Amino acid sequence: MKNAFPFVRTELPDWMVPVIEKVAAKMHDDATGHDLLHAVRVMELAGAIAKELGVEKEPTMTAGLLHDYYRKEEKQSGQLHYGPEAIAALRQEFGSMIAEALGKDGLEDVLAAIARHEEYYFDQDQGEDVLALPVLLQILQDADRIEAIGAVGVARTFMFGGAHGLPLAEDAEINANTWFDPGTRPKGSVHQHFYEKLLRLKDGMHTAPGRKLAEERHQFMLMFVRQLESELELESPDAVNLAR
Ligand SMILES: [Fe+2]
User: Fold this and answer.
1) How far apart are CA 228 and CA 240, in angstroms?
2) Ligand 1 centroid to 181 CA: how many Å?
């Protein structure tokens, strides 16, 4: 069945229709890689992973749909799109709709997952046992990261780089110790971003379906990066340890 919303391939429960209307209105013209297509894809990937794992789909789909909702405001205000202000604003704007459909605990689970979706294993001082993370958070992180790798990941990375004024590459060696920090302004080059974040994502996947999808997309992305380096005669930093 063809859905009434752009890019939406799966059937939505009735209560999500006004939610996606708001998301479409805000995100349809984004040009940073965090557009409506991204929100919808994370929603659908999260739902598909949840189904495969035999857990409730709707909370994961809701978290996927809303996880980047305040990206636009983040650029203007400097406040993080998953920070306390964004979570309070999400509660204000969508809280009653979500609580009515998923219950008060469901709403809290969705907001808690969104608040932590930008945590990366390579960004933490001390590793947390990933199995201890709530399954909703594991699914949201996996779905969002699958969207950051493969052909879609490459395309979104260049959109993000262009929107933030990053050069394609710099004539300098990739720094193996520079890891992506989601709380700081984007810096370096698009080429660097593959090493500081994207090529590391595969090893941080939590779920079996997520790992499977990530492996395939990682291999494609690695091939792309090697070809880019070959054409631009850039250093190919084999020495960078990309394993966890
Ligand atoms: Fe995202």
Assistant:
1) 17
2) 15
Q: What is the per-residue DSSP string for 206-231?
A: -SHHHHHHHHHHHHHHHHHHHHHHHH
Q: How far is the CA of 232 from the centre of ligand 1 (A)?
A: 29
Ligand 1 ion: residues within 5 Å (CB): 68, 144
Residue 234 alpha carbon to ligand 1 centre in Å: 29
State if pTM tops 0.85: yes
CATH topology of domain 16-122: Hypothetical protein af1432 (1.10.3210)
Q: What is the pLDDT of residue 239?
A: 44
Tell me how far the alpha carbon of residue 86 lies from the centroid of ligand 1, in angstroms.
14
Mean pLDDT in residue range 31-48: 96
Rounded to an integer, what distance in angstroms lies between the CA atom of residue 142 and that of residue 215?
A: 12
List Cβ neighbours of 160 (8 Å cut-off, separation of 6 or more). 32, 33, 34, 166, 186, 193
DSSP one-letter code for 126? S
| pLDDT at residue 73, as a whole number | 84
Q: Tell me the domain boundaries of the chain.
A: 16-122
Q: Kindly tell me if the per-residue pLDDT of 243 is higher than 60.
A: no
Task: Give distance in angstroms: CA of 67 to centre of ligand 1.
Answer: 6
Contacting residues for 28 by C-beta, under 8 A, at least 6 apart: 6, 35, 36
Ligand 1 center to 235 CA (angstroms): 29
**Residue matched to tokens 């394993």:** 243
Here the tokens at position 43 are 């929603």
Closest CA to 216 of 197, 206, 205, 202: 202
- DSSP summary character for residue 32: S
